[in-house]
Amino acid sequence: MNAANTAPAALPVSFEFFPPKTPEGIEKLRTVRQQLYALQPQFCSVTYGAGGSTQDGTLQAVQSILDEGQQGASHFTCVGASRDSVREKLALFQSIGVRRLVALRGDLPSGYGSMGEFRYAADLVAFIRAETGDRFHLEVAAYPEMHPQARSPEADLQAFAAKVRAGADSAITQYFFNADAYSRFVDETRRLGLNIPIVPGIMPITGSTQLMRFSDACGAEIPRWIRLRLSGFGDDSASIRAFGLDVVSRLCEQLVAAGAPGLHFYTMNQSTATLAICQRLGR
To answer: Which of 48, 49, 83, 191 has the CA that lies 20 to 30 A from 103?
Structure first.
């Protein structure tokens, strides 16, 4: 079946970037963004380092996206933060025109002695709602294959439910390569009466070593058959990219067929693979 005949042209897409650390990286990302804007993204988000360690770079990247006429969303982590510091950052986001936040617990940076005044992402969502009402569209994270630190699948599902009930507008999932995991997770949330859009996060496969490292760290399962195929290609980067394009495009087809409300691409500050996948999907 041809993917271009199965995916609606209006399928919403969004992109995640990370803040560059060098002038060359900033210029490269500017070019990448311009290439991806051709897909008319719903929004573009920028990650936030542990404890807000990339705050300046994140804000600069979000400001650039806004200046380019796109909707820019900032990741916003709360671990190690105080209510006053969060209140100040919310005012800053509002002042530069940010209207969408990705509210996360985040990781405690090395050397921090305290989790701060927010223990969970649900606490952050509730605080933002109490402080700012509906001024921000709040995205939260979802884990179809379970958060790596969760005690159990049920505990993880209840943690997600707490974020939704605290006021989240929509969710973006951790990336995965098993469409059934997404469908099962969505079904479980609906049974709890949680009806916000849950957008699958998509990781293009452009290499082997980095993908394995990321996946091991974040708990994303790479099916054995994909691992074996990637290992079999060795250093043949062209074959890895071609295989990755087939695998991820097919995954996206399955997700769209299952009713996914959009696709959120973890671009890794690259455009080629995401553009190729979206072309396969008829965008």
So the answer is: 191
